[in-house]
Amino acid sequence: MSNEYRLNSLEDDEILKLYELFFGPILMRRETEFYLESLKTFLNKESSIEKVVNKLNECDAIIFSYPVYTFIAPSQLHRFIELLKENNVNLENKFVTQITTSKHFYDMTAHKYIEENCYDLKMKYVKGLSQDMEDLTKKEGQLEAINFFKYFINSIDAISLRCNVKYSFST
After folding, report:
1. Contact, 44 vs 78, CB < 8 A?
2. I need a labelling partner for 80 at 20 to 30 A (CA). Which of 42, 55, 91, 155 fits?
3. Cα–Cα–Cα angle for 49, 50, 55, nearest 5°?
4. Nearest to 97 by CA among 50, 25, 154, 163
5. How far is Cα 7 from Cα 17, in angstroms, rounded to an integer?
6. How far apart are CA 141 and CA 134, in angstroms?
7. Amino acid 21: pLDDT
8. What was the pLDDT predicted at 3?
9. What is the dihedral of CA 104, 105, 107, 110, to 10 degrees?
10. Are 156 and 61 in contact (CB under 8 A)?
11. DSSP state, residue 136
12. Rounded to the nearest 5°, which phi and psi values hold at 101?
């Protein structure tokens, strides 16, 4: 039995940018005043984590995409995962993978960190893609990314059939 997938382009407001939701690290001294004002605004509004959780509940698959500069995933992503755990967000059986760019210098530590946290959250992890920072600007790298996405979709299909899980990619 084959499934048809309708892949839609995301609109800007559908892509959640963690740094805009104040999951970032503590800033330098010259930025502290701005950070504190932003934090006050953030704390006075409905929690941003709720907005993210609502979006996560609507989706069937999650792709973490981030650069690896210093052996690990960015601090915003670390904090985001901490907040998911602190708030007992249920992501069980959500399909997840990751795409990173780096100079292939210990990027596997970042991948392993995300992988282990996904298992902690009882997600269905599919091995991710690590690209060199310039790869996506070249045809060969772009083709590799397209093939990776097809691999991810096929993995979801195979896991779903094996586990009798139904899913759909919707608008």
Report:
1. no
2. 155
3. 100
4. 154
5. 21
6. 8
7. 53
8. 35
9. -160
10. yes
11. G
12. -120, 140
Per-residue confidence in pLDDT tens, the chain, 171 aa? 333 333 334 444 444 555 555 454 444 444 555 655 655 565 554 456 777 788 888 888 999 988 888 788 888 888 888 888 988 889 999 999 999 988 877 788 999 999 999 999 999 999 999 998 888 889 999 999 999 999 999 998 887 776 655 544 443
**Contacts with 8 (C-beta within 8 Å, 6 or more apart), sequence order:** 169, 171
**168 burial via Cβ count (<10 Å: 0-12, 13-18, 19+):** exposed
Nearest alpha carbon to residue 101 among 70, 64, 80, 132: 132
- Rounded to 5 degrees, what are φ and ψ at 98? -145, 150
* 125 vs 114: CA distance, rounded Å: 9
Token readout for 142 is 């772009």
The DSSP secondary-structure symbol of 102 reads E
Among 148, 52, 165, 68, CA closest to 114: 68
Q: How many angstroms from the chain centroid is the CA of residue 47? A: 19
Tell me which amino acid residue 13 is. Answer: D
CA distances to 98, 148, 166 from 9, in Å: 18, 17, 22
DSSP label at 130?
Answer: E
Instruction: Show the tokens assigned to 93.
Output: 């059986």
